[in-house]
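Lecture notes, structural biology module. Today: joint structure prediction for complexes of two components.
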Amino acid sequence: MSTQQVSYHGVGVSAGRVIGPVLRMPDPITAPADGAPLPEGSTADAEIERLAAATQSVAAALKARAATATGDAQAVLKATALMASDRTLLKSASKLVSGGTCAESAIWEAADAVATQLAALGGYMAERAGDVLDVRARIVAELRGVPAPGIPDSDVPFVLAAVDLAPADTATLDPAKVLALVTSDGGPQSHTAIIARSLGLPAIVAAAGTTALDDGMLVFADGISGTVTTNPGAEQEHLAATYANREPLPDFDGNGMLADGHLVPLLANVGSGTDAQAAAAAGAQGVGLLRTEFCFLGRDAEPTHQEQVAAYGAVFEAFAGKKVVVRTLDAGADKPLPFLTDTTEPNPALGVRGYRTDAASPGVLSRQLAAIAQAAGEHQAEVWTMAPMISTPAEAGAFAAMVAEAGLPTGGAMIEVPSAAVLAGGILSRCDFVSLGTNDLTQYTMAADRQLGAMAELNDPWQPAVLHLIKATSEGARSAGGKPVGVCGEAAADPALAVVLVGLGVNTLSMNKRALSPVAAVLRTVDLPAARRLAALALDADSASEARRLVRAELPELDRFGL
Amino acid sequence: MAERQAIIGSRVGLHARPAAIFAEAAAEAPVEVTIALEGEPAEDALDASSILSLMGLGAEYGTTVILRAEGEGAEEALDKLVKVLETDHDSE
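The predicted structure, tokenised, for the full assembly:
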């Protein structure tokens, strides 16, 4: 075997460095042709025997997995093992084989009938229909001699390689068995990225060429630099060992600041009352972004005033006496709403979305502001309200007037459109604060779709052009009398980038609650002059990866905590 | 032909977990056991060791079902299986 190293570059979306053997996510099982005939030269009896053997070996494999599982997982595996060897299923499939159908098509059709019957029962049984279809796919895979679908099973922990992962795949992902995730497709906002962060697994997405990785190949997966390297040597072993021996992160003490005592309040991004409680328990000093879409998405009609008051109130209750920044409805683009947005727009990211929906469908926004005002009046949180997708100072002024009219004390604007960053001074002379939405700001600055894996390198908040716009925003805030500037995009959750943001003049950072402790720990290791120096390094870099590399090299504490 | 009535004791009905426990017990019986909802003809009865048939029965908590078996040991086997059906496996 060759010992030559090959490195694949993607985007590191969840930190961590590990070495392990690759297992590939098998291709999904395709449906056999309807009623395909017996294989040439075979008899019905021989085909029935082949089918029975396949069901038995699938059942045996599931039973063996059940034996090593515990709790609910064990019960589910046991039940699916019984489904695989089910006599009634085998009988009805065998009947089809006797009629001249091949084993694959016969089991496909027979299981389909069972699944349809279960689905018709509704409720819990309907959910089990999926289990029957999973068992069916396993039996067909066995008949074809290809790997079973779904996350591969292994006694040894492995690096899972896939094109991309679907929510259904990740639901069965066992974090004790999977060391890291590597996908050739997907982006920083893909489902793979989200699940990896929530499980704390190192992950590299959009790593083109990793489809060449094969089962059993040893690789070094680096979720920090976003690379995957085959045939790891001494250098990679050292990096993995350093990561394995990292210091555990201290819990966030609810007091974000730099080493010199410069305060940087760390807030949480939340999307519901339950989320808010969890964020408060994690020490969040407030909410920097309340996504109000949770109240609206998946509905055909606008929620009622009372429904909205209750939903917002549940969040305010968790942060009595603290700041909660409410973002008004951000519908459109990747979050369409039937009563508000037009899904036939040729380019929805540049269409009627966010604040712009108020001109197209007036009323929804003012009713939402009235609900926010009532909920604010019923609770002790310090409520700030901002609109997404503000593009001009005039829009910011109009929104601030609506906020004031609703009786809310503090109105602001999101800075997501480059024009708003350029004219931040004008925007802030017409409203009270701004919050940078770095995900959209990056997409619009770089003209790179956030959903496209191939655009991942451009769609990176470390892009110096994006950092220059953040700097322009904080300079605008200073010219408007020192009004507050926050960041509530994924950028704030990257501990190294958080240092740069503070150096650029950002006052508060808002992130998912899991990022609070790493960001707080790294901020505590630098003072304001150092943060400014690192920000200058990043501003002058010639690419996102160089900016990241230059800044990270100056933050040795990242290695200490394995970030 | 031995025959027994049983009332489903699992709060969630004859769903995946209770059905798995019962199907396994039925498979271990020395005789072939069938199951049918009360009032359904005996010839429509289903194989009691088939988890998919059990789930497709749609038997909820409190539903009465009829177990049937023939041959040596049928009586004892059915007595045992009635107990399994009438236990609430979800409370374990």
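Point to remember: Residues 2-91 of chain B form a domain with the Histidine-containing Protein; Chain: A; fold (CATH 3.30.1340.10).
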